[in-house]
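>> received
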Amino acid sequence: MSEFGHVVVGVDGSAVARNAACWAAREAARRGVVLRIVYADPTTAPLLPELPGLHWPKEHRDQVREQVAHWLDVAAAAAREQAPEAVVTTAACSGSPERVLIAESDTAGLVVVGDRGFGGFTGLLAGAVAVKVAAHARCSVAVVPDTGDPLTFPVTGPVVAGVDDDRSAQPVLEHAFAAASGWGVPLHVVHTWEVVGIDLKWLRGRLPADAVEEDEARFVSEALAGWGERYPDVEVHRFIGRGAATAELLSRAREAQLVVVGARGRGGVAGAHLGSTSHKLLHHSPCPVLIVRTFTTA
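>> returned
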């Protein structure tokens, strides 16, 4: 996948989906790519999964498709109003919401979804479609939270990047620096660590004072090497300390406009597609969360 791939956003007629479309339009304009707004048309599938031969009545299909077309038009109008320079296309796609968006991720640079809505492209408490897409999409995924109000721009808060391990640090920083530069805001780089299953008094007696802190600070410095030269306009602040990554990121998300994290890190579970920190951020972050797939350049 290319970092220049188009942006896809799923809508379902809900207010939070329109917010997601507006956020996606702003992001597509920043990247200079097309925004594709999609809706999963339920009438293309059997009426009941257990009865594959039972299809929707024609009159009902026509009504639903008319409504789908209306919702796509509304989302497209909101997106164009938000980012008049963005090229916006729409499509009604066959399949379940999560299958549609995961399929769209094959050619997209970013997939955007709201965290709840009417049960279409969203899921209660980010528990259904948003989490499935974030876990299984083949490009990066942004989840826009339900704030209860229409999004207003420009947003002046910083971009927050959670830097965890060597595998995810560079892709996360690539997205975070680009966003901070494009929006003209500072970048807050957060790195935390925890010592689990070891007696800290025993550990301190065998390591020089501040040895762990110095090692972790060195990791962040090495991860940031070269990025200041590529983005001299971005003001960078480092926040390094022992503790839970989720708590620190959520604390900073309250004043941020975007949190960028890797799909997995040292806090992840072997074999899982979505680490525990990313999963918790989807449920609780008050600002959009961008989950970067480390096996793509998107």
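>> The radius of gyration is 21 Å.
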